[in-house]
Amino acid sequence: MLAHILKLAGHHVGLTTTDGVYVDGQRTVEGDMTGPVATRMVLSDPFVDVAVLETARGGLLRAGMGCAIATWARCSTSSPITWA
User: Fold this and answer.
1) Strands of 26-30's sheet, edge to edge?
2) Which residues, other chains included, contact 63 with Cβ-Cβ below 8 Å and sequence gap of 6+?
3) pLDDT of residue 7
4) Structure confidence by residue, pLDDT tens digits, 13-50
5) Distance (Å, whole) CA 52 – CA 39
6) What per-residue confidence (pLDDT) applies to 47?
7) What pTM, to 2 d.p., does this model score?
8) CB neighbourhood size of 40 (10 A)
9) Which terminal residue of the chain, N or C, has fewer Cβ atoms less than 10 Å from its own Cβ?
10) Other C-beta atoms within 10 Å of 56: how many?
């Protein structure tokens, strides 16, 4: 939803999801693209001026975010977190 709102606001949006990588609503890569490789793909695209990045918890712990600086970020989860 956020990518759609940003596109309607006139931005060229790069999006990473479990379905693939999208640039301006067009899928450019198919498959689970929630890791740092997909993040770098989107952030290196000269057409993209804003990125919405879905990052899996496991990939985040293993390989990091894929970028050093973020102007704005929101972390959330779609499933309950259990603390051991």
Assistant:
1) 26-30, 20-23, 13-16, 50-53
2) 35, 36
3) 96
4) 999 999 999 999 999 999 999 988 899 999 999 999 99
5) 9
6) 96
7) 0.83
8) 13
9) C
10) 13
Beta-strand runs (E) in 1-84: 13-16, 20-23, 26-30, 50-53
* Of the candidates 48, 46, 53, the residue with the CA atom closest to the CA atom of residue 16: 53
Q: What is the pLDDT of residue 81?
A: 67
Which amino acid, one-letter code, is at 23?
A: V
pLDDT digits (tens, 9 = 90+) for 63-72: 888 888 888 8
Q: Three-state SS for 76?
A: coil
Work out the end-to-end distance of the chain between its first and last CA atoms, rounded to an integer number of angstroms.
33
Distance CA 38, CA 6 (A): 19
- Could you give the 3-state DSSP secondary structure of residue 31? coil
